[in-house]
Fold this protein.
Amino acid sequence: MSVRLAAREHRTAWLFLAPLIIVMLMVAVWPLGRTFFFSFTDAYLDDPSFYALIGFDNFVEVFNDANWWVAVKNTLVFAVISVFIETLLGLGIALLLNEAIPGRGMLRAAILVPWAIPVVVATKIWEWMLNDQFGVFNHMLMSLGIIEHGIAWTASSSLIMGVVIFIDVWMTTPFMVLLILAGLQTIPGEMMEAAEVDGIPAWKRFWSITLPLLRPAIGVAVLFRALDAMRMFDLAYVLAASNQNVITVSIYARDRLISFQELGVGSAASTWVFLLVALVAIILIGALRLDRSAGE
């Protein structure tokens, strides 16, 4: 009887999961499979029905393209610096919002505003604010006597990457704050109170109690944010299109696929992007598991 009941429960579970599996196959697995297939062809976007199988030629072409490696370098620089700064700021702001300060509820709501603004809208807002002629940012710096004339922040090859990182930090730090703050809520207050009664300094309580208990939450936040940064497209593309100083792997794949109409090469580039993000995910997940094992 118990066997029949278990089999019935399994069928019911699969019945409820079936719509989700079908949707996942339609919106994720099928497009990914088609992209992988076209990466082995010489198809063009204007007429993808005519193609010939050419093996790994497209992958080799992308791998040997100097612009691809420029995009990889830009992507890694952007991901490492932005995620590092966002983690530090997110931790600091989360610690502040976790304290019993006046207006804490309003501050928690206000901190989410930059994250709630669509990326394209936020990017255009900052583009106007950083304009060298009538941007409010240059006006403030000139009023303070810091600069004598407006700086073309988004047109300078030496400043554009810093601008992209700055805007991303402004938009995405609230995401880190939200996840780290959720982790802080799980730390027992009695433990911190007992440590305070025992006379343990605040910095030592943070280093020996708060930070170790917060590592899982920080690890998850860094994982999600790093994977998102590795796939970054909209911010850099809206701000600087295909500028070589901020071109990312996603922009590179888009250019080969859309601008040059190279469906085969663009699909190969997209597959390389997928493999690069997967590699970063494996490394980060492995690091999180090692950290967890060391903690146990």
User: Anything to note?
Assistant: Residues 157 and 245 are 6 Å apart (CA to CA). The mean pLDDT is 88. The two ends are 41 Å apart (CA to CA).
